[in-house]
């Protein structure tokens, strides 16, 4: 549905495409007004801050003057989608665990790794270099990708060669 600021003096945060936002609200089982309020309404002081994928220092976040974090409309929407994804992933894991649950001891296991992919500040429209945290995240992502390739392709090919 996208997000944007209203062009009026107030600069109110709102959805860029109301028809898509209406469909999202329908699928979530709420009204468009409730969805807009949950995403864009300013949180009272002392409440939990929204989680976004952007890391900011206190000055960049607007905390230096005590006014609270300056969160863009797009960051608000990204926080919602991140939270929904997290909830769906947790639900998937619970359903898989329930389906695999057995009264007998088992030697089988399943590993599910959920990584968001490589992080590149330039792709997010930022003109800064990558932080140490992003470097570590990207390194772990590369290692996991290599492990997946090794187990999915290389070891399977070796096993096929041994069987012939």
Automatic annotation (TrEMBL):
It comes from the Eukaryota. Keywords: Actin-binding, Motor protein, Myosin. GO terms for cellular component: cytoplasm; myosin filament; myosin II complex. Residues 1-164 form the Myosin motor domain. GO terms for molecular function: actin filament binding; ATP binding; cytoskeletal motor activity. Belongs to the TRAFAC class myosin-kinesin ATPase superfamily. Myosin family. This is Myosin motor domain-containing protein. GO terms for biological process: actomyosin structure organization. InterPro entries: Myosin_head_motor_dom-like, P-loop_NTPase. It holds the Pfam family Myosin_head. It comes from Micrurus carvalhoi.
């Amino acid at each position: 549905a996208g997000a944007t600021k209203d062009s009026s003096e107030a600069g109110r945060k709102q959805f860029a495409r109301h028809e898509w936002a209406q469909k999202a609200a329908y699928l979530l089982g709420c009204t468009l007004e409730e969805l807009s309020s949950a995403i864009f309404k300013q949180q009272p002081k002392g409440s939990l801050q929204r989680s976004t994928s952007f890391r900011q220092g206190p000055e960049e976040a607007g905390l230096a003057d005590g006014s609270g974090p300056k969160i863009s409309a797009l960051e608000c929407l990204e926080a919602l989608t991140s939270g929904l994804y997290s909830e769906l992933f947790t639900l998937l894991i619970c359903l898989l665990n329930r389906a695999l649950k057995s009264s007998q001891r088992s030697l089988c296991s399943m590993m599910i790794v959920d990584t968001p992919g490589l992080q590149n500040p330039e792709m997010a429209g930022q003109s800064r270099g990558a932080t140490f945290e992003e470097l570590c995240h990207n390194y772990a992502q590369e290692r996991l990708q290599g492990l997946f390739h090794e187990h999915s392709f290389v070891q399977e090919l070796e096993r096929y060669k041994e069987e012939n």
